[in-house]
Amino acid sequence: MVCDGMGGAAGGNVASSTAVKVIAEQITSSFRPGMSANSIKNMMVSAINAANISVYDISCSNSELYGMGTTVVCAIVMEHIAYIAHAGDSRAYIVSHGALTQLTRDHSVVQELVEHGKITALEAKKA
Questions:
Q1: What is the largest CA-CA distance in the chain?
Q2: Domain that holds residue 84
């Protein structure tokens, strides 16, 4: 799992560490061997949503942390299958046969501009 905080040094650290803790707790308490792919997906989405709520609640309760947030990318690997969930612009990659392949698509304004043909991928890299 990777959580990359934003919102200043203090805010970013609090947001990312909170997200890691909540997601890990949620998955640890919910995971069961033999879960279906759909159940794993739902569990991961629920864990990220719970982390989002926790980060938001902390942000609202402390003016120094207001507006903090974090990206997240997490994976569960079972029987040679990787289940990946993410939010934001932290990416998941796989290395296979010496090649690096991006598995996720950024959740960002820049990515939306690329997808809608407003800017090129090269312009996005410079943004």
A1: 49
A2: 1-90
Directed axis angle between helix 8-30 and helix 37-61, to 10°? Answer: 150
Per-residue pLDDT tens over the stretch 83-121: 999 999 999 999 999 999 999 998 877 777 877 888 887
Q: Are 72 and 106 part of one and the same domain?
A: no
Question: How many whole angstroms separate alpha carbon 97 and alpha carbon 120?
Answer: 29
Mean pLDDT in residue range 24-48: 97
Q: What tokens appear for 78 in the block?
A: 């079972």
pTM for this structure?
0.85
Inter-residue contact 10 to 64 (CB < 8 Å): yes
76 and 23: one domain?
Answer: yes
83/126 same-domain check: no
Residue 97: what residue type? Answer: H
Contact 98, 45 (CB under 8 A): no
State how many domains the chain has. 2
Cα–Cα dist 108/28, whole Å: 29
Position 12 confidence tier, pLDDT thresholds 50, 70, 90: very high
